[in-house]
Write a structure and sequence with these properties.
Helices cover about 30% and strands about 30% of the residues. The protein is α/β, with parallel strands linked by helices.
């Protein structure tokens, strides 16, 4: 087997089971090693560290999977890892036939570079590494054997594919694809999900529990839900007894699906509008409008460490607008899905908003992603979502 040799004094994180070997840690490759193939990671002295998949085109040169030299990265290995991941969702009770769940969460499940989501009888597989993309002919049959879905679809983020050198056609991969949006149920509410053209794999599964938690604070309130997508927070707020709910998103297609989701659940006090979220909030502020609750769930602002300062400025301005639209005693539900923004960074940003607006921001609850997005203790980067529920006086 080919070997990837580390630079001196670079092995400690990988003996500590961190799964990402960045290009800056690699000294050289010994032996023929095509991108996507398995290799051994060794110290500069030649001592075995771990075994993983190599990609010379990626900033993440190697993704590590086993620290046992006797364990091969073969079909049996991937089958066992998938079985372990599926067993966790059964333990969580996230295995309803009409529900949705993340079945595989990359590093959180020891399967770096692979996302698998289940929507009712369909699976959506999203490889985020070249190595996993090349192993779909092994992974998909294993998933079919485990879960017996009607169909398996493949999604691939364009930026990730470009960074990984991954060429993969999106669309049906196995079985019969759905002939339209797939209906799922979440906490008693029904949502139609577009598996092929929706964001991510079609729905923000990571906010599953946060939607219910936030709704407990929204009964009887006038709620503004920004970046509402297909209505997740909006519908939960309305179902919990919010007086009226306005959801805003820049995607016309998402707004139309949100409207159909509201009708699907007979929720008449929720309306949706299409528009730029920042411009919409600025116009509302200038018109003197106010709400008794504001939900902010924007897309990722920081895609790398170099954009952190810019992202924090965007979060600051967004949350300042949200606070300015809140009446005294209002509820602010504010989120960040940017992994490069730490929980401490986000709380410090709220401190700046409180100082600038001269409003008291009381943090009532702090949450992360739903438990089907487990955080790996050896890969802090797998914790990415922040959801703060606050009162603004």
């Amino acid at each position: 087997m080919a070997r990837v040799v580390l630079k001196p004094r670079k092995a400690k994180p990988f003996f500590g089971r961190h799964p990402w070997v960045l290009s800056t840690a690699v000294s050289r490759v010994e032996g023929a090693l095509p991108d996507g193939d398995a290799a051994e990671l060794v110290t500069h002295e030649g001592n075995f560290v771990a075994r993983g998949l190599y990609n010379g085109r990626s900033r993440i040169r190697m993704r590590l999977f086993t620290w046992d030299r006797g364990e091969e990265l073969d079909a049996a290995f991937w089958q066992a890892r998938l079985e372990r991941a599926v067993a966790l969702r059964e333990l969580l009770g996230y295995d309803s036939a009409v529900g949705a769940a993340r079945l595989v969460f990359s590093e959180g499940d020891g399967l770096s570079g692979l996302i698998v989501d289940r929507y009712g009888p369909y699976l959506v597989v999203q490889p985020t590494s070249l190595g996993m993309g090349l192993r779909l002919p092994i992974i998909v049959p294993a998933l079919v054997q485990l879960l017996a879905p009607k169909g398996v679809l493949v999604r691939c983020d364009e930026a990730t594919a470009r960074a990984e050198g991954l060429e993969l056609a999106e669309g049906p991969f196995w079985g019969t694809p759905p002939d339209g949006p797939v209906e799922i149920e979440e906490h008693g509410l029904r949502f139609a999900v577009d598996l092929m053209s929706g964001h991510k794999t079609g729905f923000y599964l990571d906010q599953r529990e946060n939607r219910r938690r936030a709704a407990r604070f929204l009964s009887g309130r006038r709620v503004l839900d920004m970046f509402c997508y297909t209505g997740g927070f909006s519908l939960h707020a309305a179902a919990a007894g919010a007086g009226e709910v306005l959801g805003v998103d820049s995607s016309r297609k998402a707004v139309e699906l949100a409207e159909s989701n509201a009708a699907r659940n007979g929720l008449q006090q929720v309306t949706f509008a299409c528009g730029s979220c920042f411009e919409t909030m600025e116009a509302m502020r200038d018109q003197g409008r106010s709400f008794e609750a504001v939900v902010l769930d924007p897309p990722k602002f920081a895609r790398g460490g170099r954009t952190l300062d810019e992202a924090l400025r965007a979060y600051h301005y967004l949350n300042r607008l949200g606070v300015e639209l809140l009446s005294p005693g209002g509820i602010l539900v504010t989120c960040s899905c940017s992994g490069h923004v730490s929980r401490q960074d986000f709380q410090q940003m709220l401190l700046g908003v409180a100082q600038q607006t001269r409003r008291e921001i009381q943090i009532l609850e702090q949450h992360g992603a739903a438990p089907d997005h487990p955080t790996s203790a050896t890969c802090a980067e797998s914790e990415y979502l922040k959801c703060f529920i606050c009162r603004v006086c």
